[in-house]
Amino acid sequence: MERKHIKARIRSAWTTAGAVAALVASGSAAAVVPTPPAPSTAPATNDAISWVEGVFEDASEVGILAIGVILFVLGAAGMIWAISQIMTGKESIAGVAKIGVASAGGIAFGTYALTQASGII
Can you give the pTM of this predicted structure? Predict the structure, then answer.
């Protein structure tokens, strides 16, 4: 009985120490994070038209990022499928060429969209 009691106390102390360490680490990490700069699309004055234009510009950048991620992931999945079909001998290269070319195009356009959107941001 004595051993189980000691193990339970050690486990409880270890859990408490881990929780305290996580709180200390999160507090110090939050102190290191710099404040974000003002958005580049923020209007200089209280101009509603400039604000709306900035919102639409930011939304288009987010849309480009989303489309880029979707194209890249779909292209990568298509390439993995095409290569696995060829490697397992289920299909020939000619049989999966259309999907392989379309997947390569998806990766190319997805990478281009991600580069453009991240370059703007």
Answer: 0.53
